[in-house]
Amino acid sequence: MKTMKKVLTAILAVALTAMLFAGCNQSGGTAKGGVIKIGATGPLTGSASIYGISVNNGANLAVEEINAAGGVNGLTFSFEMKDDEATPDKVASAYDALLDAGMQISLGSVTSGACLAFGARAAADNIFFMTPSASNADVIAAGSNAFRVCFGDPDQGVLAAEELTKKYQTIGCIYDTSDEYSAGIYEAFKTKMGELGVAFETRTFDQDNKTDFSSQVEGLKNCDVIFLPFYYQEAGLVARACAGKGLDNIVLFGCDGLDGVAGEIDETVKNQISYITPFDVASTEKNVSDFVASYKAKYGAEPDQFAADGYDAIYAIVNAIKAAGVNDASIKASDLCEKVKAAITASSFKYDGVTGSMTWDASGACEKSAIIVVVGK
Length: 377
Hints:
Layout: H1 2-22, E1 34-42, H2 49-68, E2 75-83, H3 91-100, E3 105-109, H4 112-125, E4 129-131, E5 146-148, H5 153-167, E6 171-176, H6 180-196, E7 201-205, H7 214-219, E8 225-228, H8 232-244, E9 251-254, E10 273-277, H9 286-299, H10 305-324, H11 333-344, E11 351-353, E12 356-360, E13 366-367, E14 371-374
Parallel strand pairs: 1-2, 1-3, 4-5, 6-7, 6-8, 8-9, 9-10
Antiparallel strand pairs: 10-14, 11-12, 12-13
């Protein structure tokens, strides 16, 4: 009987020891694994909701794929986007709600104005964020925790100037003076054109005057090409204004905001329309075609660049978490920020996404190649 008691005591001791080791890690007593919470804000309602919904869809698709594949380092992930209506003054309450829900890392905000407000709060809390689409140069200047997937506005202005001056003699530009994205690209374009010593003509519009572009088109009717650094809805109106005036020979050239312009024009538009982008929905590269197929299966529509950026932002963060060796979901947001920053800026880190092969430096800027998509080709 005494022997049996000794055996049972020994078994119990071994079991307790095993339980202790299973429940502890090197950081001192917290179970490994768990769920890392990723938060973001974006316009889910209002006039800019198409962009927030696309990013939200792409991000959620990425999280589902990652979790279905078993996560990384024993971790799984959740994603939540709060509606900010693309309005900076709505970001504070959305940010606080995400913190209350346990946000540890983030995609920041979808639009630049909102992301500037988000970035100020995130910098104070040292929360890492990787914005998919907030392209204003100041967004990643807010702190060492700020990164992006998309091209910066200055990058696109410079690329456009270099591309257009190679091909065309007379160059025009229309831009939105009331929009940070449009004005930021225009200023970089203007500066680069000055450096290249090439003159160009400019026409403008603002948020109260963007339904009829006939006067702007008329003023630029002698141009070989018109640069359109704004979004596809207005670009579609410019194209239709060209059609209405019979100015079919003018080339229309834009930036990544023109992704979606094909749905805004009809057979009356004969102009060549092309734009700078990191994402081509018609690409035959396997990772892109797989993403497009998965997105269509889930949402019943083709993804745009915003969806692709949201998808890549999640994968970039998760790959950095994997590279950093993080395996404990109870890690504090500030500690996670430091580990992810070190991993993602390492010379060995590269993420091959659906918007290109990407690397990052301490500035938070994304280094990747642009492609030029010609609408309908």
